[in-house]
Specification:
Number of helices: 14
Oligomer: single chain
Strand order of the largest sheet: 1-4
Number of strands: 4
Order of helices and strands: HHHHHHEEEHHHHEHHHH
Strand content: under 5%
Largest sheet: 2 strands, antiparallel
Structural class: mainly alpha
């Protein structure tokens, strides 16, 4: 990684270390936890959309699988929360592997509709299996316990998700600079050209989809344990669109853009709390304006402008 990338990672670590000591109350600490959770999810989704160029409009379905695995397995079968979380993540990865090859033969609108259909199927299954999932009403989630220690307070969860965010950013930056990451960027640019130079396009598409689904499922489990209650809204269409919006607003093919997009759009509903029902309108308006004035997203656009300024 170059010096600028390291500087960004070190800056993130400093912010995460200082943040819990400067926020005025637990409300803002809770908001910071949710921002970090969304940032990790969006980084994985950006690897799929921004770097590999493969759209997914049903990604919240994998969050739902992870969340319900962490709720159902400990509640009904007595599984340890960590075992349940890993089982949900493996189930999500397996499902992604099974559907990825036929889905990613499609392109454009057809690919978007196929991923949307996958998310809808998962959401319907979670709603209909009321005996296990509580149906539309949802169900409680048992606390997360590690080595006999129960993670309960907002501050404890903050340090957990902050550590996961740093590891995710570090791992993603290294992945992007690896031969695997260069192959992803190549197939985003041109699948035909990638095949000509020997890139196995199908394998890389499946691999990044599986990785993104696995990451989303893990964070679905983390989010479920943190909140303590889940409903099928975890896996609905609007949540998927919200995640894609975070990718686009922050910046396609930008790890730090994913963080910025997650922070902005997690905070936005709180800022619009007095205008109940207008959050979706705001998401749509911001996305539209971003696509018009900053089609590359906030972070890549600002980075390009500052780079031009440095060259003068």
């Amino acid at each position: 990684m170059n010096k600028r990338i390291y500087f960004g990672l070190y800056g993130l670590i400093v912010i995460l270390l200082v943040l819990p000591f400067v926020v005025p109350n637990n409300f803002y600490l809770d908001l910071a936890v949710r921002m970090a959770i969304n940032a990790i999810i969006v980084i994985g989704l950006n690897l799929l959309i921004g770097f590999a160029g493969q759209i997914s409009l049903g990604h919240a379905g994998f969050l739902g699988i992870g969340a319900y695995a962490s709720a159902v397995l400990p509640m009904h079968f007595g599984w340890h929360p960590v075992t349940a979380m890993l089982t949900g993540a493996l189930a999500s990865a397996l499902l992604a592997a099974l559907v990825a090859k036929p889905i990613f033969k499609l392109k454009g609108h057809y690919l978007a509709m196929a991923t949307l259909g996958l998310g809808i199927i998962i959401n319907i299954a979670l709603r209909n299996e009321a005996q296990w999932t509580g149906g539309p009403d949802g169900m409680p989630v048992l606390p997360m316990a590690l080595f006999g220690f129960e993670i309960g307070s907002d501050r404890q969860w903050y340090w957990v998700v902050a550590a996961l965010l740093v590891l995710t950013v570090w791992g993603s930056l290294n992945l992007i600079d690896s031969p695997f990451g260069r192959a992803l960027r190549a197939l985003h640019g041109s699948e035909v050209a990638s095949q000509v130079v020997g890139v196995n396009v199908a394998r890389y598409k499946v691999s990044i989809f599986v990785l993104s689904a696995f990451s989303a499922s893990i964070m679905g489990s983390i989010s479920a344990h943190y909140i303590g209650f889940i409903s099928p809204n975890f896996a609905d269409f609007f949540h998927s669109i919200e995640l894609v919006t975070m990718v686009v607003i922050g910046g396609m093919a930008s790890v730090y853009g994913s963080i910025v997009g997650a922070v902005l759009l997690t905070a936005l509903p709180q800022a619009l709390a007095t205008f109940e029902g207008w959050e979706t309108v705001a998401f749509g308006a911001i996305l539209m304006l971003c696509m018009i004035f900053m089609p590359r997203g906030l972070v890549p656009t600002l980075a390009a402008r500052f780079s031009k300024g440095d060259d003068k």
